[in-house]
């Protein structure tokens, strides 16, 4: 079989390209973007807002009876709760980006009143470009880089339960850094640390790579040279030179008694009046 090249006139080829470019892109349904890789980038502190097209995939009319999500931080509002088969509506998603960094997502479940039908799953993805990251450094790990485990990133609340005679264990290391493209002129600096309590002593050190290491050490002692017993719920304010994050509030909750290690302590348990720090 012999192949013959077919040459299109330049004018016709240009016309075809214009028609292809003018064709509307496929509408994204039940997500804010087609994939996680296409998630928008939002500066820390700016509200993430998305309006998502939601489609009724069932062959009968539905009523959305309940909306649930994987994060209580999300404010959700649906335009219409009644949808005929194939009909679409919009779901508005708002999430604060303070104290967050990197890839974020919320999975939203729309339950319908007909229990025979599956709920509608909706995804929302975005990335937060942080002004200043605040990471906890695990004991024995290097503080020069951000923790590889996301569970140690964006930590603003530090919970401890130690014995009075084990003071060396009551130490916290906190790493601050700014992305190179968002770092203040001359580099990130800690201008001061405001703390009115007596349990902790705070120091900060420039690590020479654009990051800062804050060390919190329990130095208070009673007349026997032991840590004072009791519950200490305190707030520390770190002042920086970053124009978009001049103050960073850190919450320290330390319980010191001889029951430490005997009973499990829920690190996510909230004391009265303490707002959640985020997911």
Mind explaining what this structure looks like?
The protein is mainly beta. It is 5% helix and 40% strand. The chain has one helix at residues 10-22; strands at 41-43, 48-55, 62-69, 75-78, 82-83, 88-95, 102-112, 120-129, 133-136, 157-162, 171-177, 190-194, 200-206, 211-218, 230-240, 247-256. The strands form four sheets. Strands 1-8-7-3-5 form a five-stranded mixed β-sheet, with no helix packed on it. A hairpin with a 4-residue loop joins β13 (200-206) and β14 (211-218).
Strand order of the largest sheet: 1-8-7-3-5
Termini separation: 64 Å
Number of strands: 16
Outline: elongated
What is the N-to-C succession of helices and strands? HEEEEEEEEEEEEEEEE
Largest sheet: 5 strands, mixed
Radius of gyration: 26 Å
Structure class: mainly beta
Low-confidence stretches: 1-8, 16-25, 270-279
Chain-averaged pLDDT: 88
Number of helices, where a helix is a run of at least 4 consecutive DSSP H or I residues: 1
Percentage beta strand? 35-45%
Fraction of residues in H or I helices? under 10%
Task: Outline the fold blueprint.
Layout: H1 10-22, E1 41-43, E2 48-55, E3 62-69, E4 75-78, E5 82-83, E6 88-95, E7 102-112, E8 120-129, E9 133-136, E10 157-162, E11 171-177, E12 190-194, E13 200-206, E14 211-218, E15 230-240, E16 247-256
Parallel strand pairs: 1-8, 10-16
Antiparallel strand pairs: 2-6, 3-5, 3-7, 4-6, 7-8, 9-11, 11-14, 12-15, 13-14, 15-16
């Amino acid at each position: 079989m012999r192949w013959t090249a077919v040459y299109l006139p330049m004018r016709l080829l240009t016309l075809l390209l214009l028609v292809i470019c003018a064709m509307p892109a496929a509408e994204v349904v039940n997500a804010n973007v087609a994939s996680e890789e296409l998630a928008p980038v939002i500066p820390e502190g700016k509200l993430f807002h998305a309006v998502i097209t939601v489609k009724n995939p069932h062959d009968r009319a539905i009523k959305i009876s309940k909306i649930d999500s994987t994060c209580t931080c999300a404010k959700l509002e649906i335009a219409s709760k009644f949808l005929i088969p194939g009909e679409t509506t919009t779901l508005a998603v708002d999430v604060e980006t303070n104290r967050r960094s990197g890839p974020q997502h919320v999975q939203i479940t729309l339950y319908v009143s007909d229990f025979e039908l599956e709920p509608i799953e909706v995804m929302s993805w975005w990335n937060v470009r942080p002004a200043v990251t605040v990471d906890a450094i695990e004991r024995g790990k290097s503080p020069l880089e951000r923790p590889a485990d996301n569970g140690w990133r964006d930590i603003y609340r530090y919970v401890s339960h130690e014995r009075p005679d084990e003071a060396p264990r009551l130490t916290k290391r906190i790493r601050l850094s700014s992305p190179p493209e968002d770092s203040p002129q001359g580099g990130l600096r800690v201008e001061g640390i405001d703390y009115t309590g007596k349990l902790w002593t705070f120091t900060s050190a420039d690590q020479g790579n654009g990051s800062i290491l804050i060390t919190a050490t329990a130095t208070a002692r009673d007349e026997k040279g032991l840590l004072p017993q009791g519950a200490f719920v305190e707030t520390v304010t770190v002042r920086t030179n970053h124009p978009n994050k001049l103050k960073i509030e850190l919450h320290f909750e330390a319980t010191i008694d001889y029951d430490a290690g005997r009973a499990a302590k829920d690190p996510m348990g909230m004391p009265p009046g303490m707002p959640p720090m985020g997911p």
